[in-house]
Amino acid sequence: MPETITNWIKEGSPWLKYAVETQLLDKKSDAAPVVKDTSISAVIARLKDEKVGIPALKTGKVAYTSTGNAFWDLYFLADIGLSAKDIGIEKEIKEFFKLQLADGSFILQDGTKASFYCIPTIILSSLAKMGYKDDPHIKKYIQNIIDLQRLDGGWHCALNRAKGKKLQDSESCPMDNVNVLMLLAQNDEYRTDSRFNGAIDLLLSHWQRRAEPWRPYGFGIGGDFAKLKYPAVKYGMLRFLDVLSMYPHALKSPEFQDMVKFVQQKAKKGKYIAESVSRAYAEFDFGQTKEPSRWITFLVNRIEKRANAGQEGNLR
């Protein structure tokens, strides 16, 4: 990344400077100014809220398809590089883990089942990033999803598509694959584990065949998918690439390289503009579409850094 772009991003809020220094420049940085930032402290406070925060997950009323709640607030703070200790949510996390079922699964939203892997993995991947990757609760959940991996190497929330069932030979769900891989990627040993290549290949094939009418489990790749938006709540390009960039198997593929080039073509003098936004994050630069977003630019450069490191055999 050009130094001019690095400096431009760092000129933003403390949380942007922290993310750049710790994740792009591999330097140590103080998290205290980040936590004290007015916008970030508001997100942290919302995480502790009984209606939309971590405590609210026990109600089953928090929708992962909405923003401004525990699912995506945790995701954002974890992406910055903050730990649970940094933001003081250890108590809330301890209570959250009590929701785990005997087999290791979680049911976090009304109307869903334990087999809906796409939902708990959003929370658990963030917690893994925030210092909990070796926690017994997360390890137990990971063992559960590995045990239930489908024949094609991926996952699907429909029980009639599980191994041994009538539809066991059908494709896995792209969203399940993205979210499960997002969790597994927080553990270095899983990034190079060939058991997950099938799930990765389905995602790569989906991009390759995007012009075809092929829509595994109803998921397609069209104009909305291609928009740069954060957080990418739906099946979207930015999170899709971010997850795949953590797997050497994906980095070697022409499909991944093609996706990176597709995104890079959106840049204007090295800067990227959010193409779709969420009102819940209107106070952040990725919550508007008129000016370049330092955060979106950071995320694309993080993907590029991983891609370069992977080609050199140094993926972290």
Task: Offer a quick outline of the entry.
The chain is mostly helical and 316 residues long.
Q: What would you say this structure looks like, in words?
A:
By secondary structure, the chain is an all-alpha fold. It has a domain at 173-316. The chain is 49% helix and 0% strand. It is built from 17 helices and no strands. α5 packs parallel to α8 (120-132), α8 (120-132) runs parallel beside α10 and α10 packs across α14 (237-244). The chain is globular. The mean pLDDT is 95.
Low-pLDDT ranges: none
Class based on secondary structure composition and strand pairing: mainly alpha
Give the C-alpha Rg. 19 Å
Mean pLDDT over the residues: 95
Main sheet makeup: none
Share of β-strand residues: under 5%
Number of strands: 0
Tell me, briefly, the overall form. globular
Q: What fraction, in percent, of the residue positions are helical?
A: 40-55%
Distance between the termini: 17 Å
Give the helix tally.
17
Order of helical and strand elements: HHHHHHHHHHHHHHHHH
Write the layout of secondary structure elements.
Elements: H1 3-10, H2 14-24, H3 32-36, H4 38-47, H5 70-80, H6 84-87, H7 90-97, H8 120-132, H9 136-147, H10 174-184, H11 188-191, H12 197-208, H13 223-226, H14 237-244, H15 248-251, H16 254-264, H17 294-311
Quick tags:
about 325 residues; mainly alpha
